[in-house]
Amino acid sequence: MKQSKTKPLHKCVCEVCQQHPYSEIAKEHQAINRVLATLDEKNRRRFVGLLALQADHGGIQWLIEITGLSRNTICRGRAEIQRAEPRVVRDRVRRPGGGRQAVEKKPRRS
């Protein structure tokens, strides 16, 4: 059986979604979380950063409640959207060398 690469949906914790789960606002929040579940971490950060730029005062706190992402992640995404980045097509999402080191080193081939 093929496993899905989507992230589980976050349940919005805002007052509107808690009190009126079938309202238009709750449906909008669910749609945002459905899109986020299909994105990799870099594009998720940028998408939420774009929403933060479009929101008025208090937009970051609003997005924290809707998406469950941290303030640092949202601010980082907003900063990435604001600065021009060279368009480089890469196969990787993260820079090389990141992540946990292997427990055992592989022997070198001669």
> Mean pLDDT score, rounded?
84
Low-confidence stretches: none
Q: How many runs of DSSP E, i.e. beta strands?
A: 0
Give the end-to-end Cα distance, rounded to a whole number of Å.
Answer: 40 Å
Overall spatial form:
elongated
Strand content: under 5%
Treating each run of at least 4 consecutive H or I residues as one helix, how many helices?
5
Helix content: 40-55%
The arrangement of helices and strands along the chain is HHHHH
Structural class: mainly alpha
Please, could you describe this protein's structure?
By secondary structure, this protein is mainly α. It has a domain at 15-82. It is 50% helix and 0% strand. The chain is built from 5 helices and no strands. It has helices spanning 15-19, 24-38, 41-54, 59-67, 71-82. The longest helix has 15 residues, at 24-38. The protein is elongated. The N and C termini lie far apart (40 Å). The relative contact order is 0.12. The model has no long low-confidence stretch (mean pLDDT 84).
Quick recap of the structure?
With 110 residues, this protein is mostly helical.
Fold blueprint:
Blueprint: H1 15-19, H2 24-38, H3 41-54, H4 59-67, H5 71-82
Helix pairs in contact: 3-4, 3-5
Defining key terms:
110 residues; mainly alpha
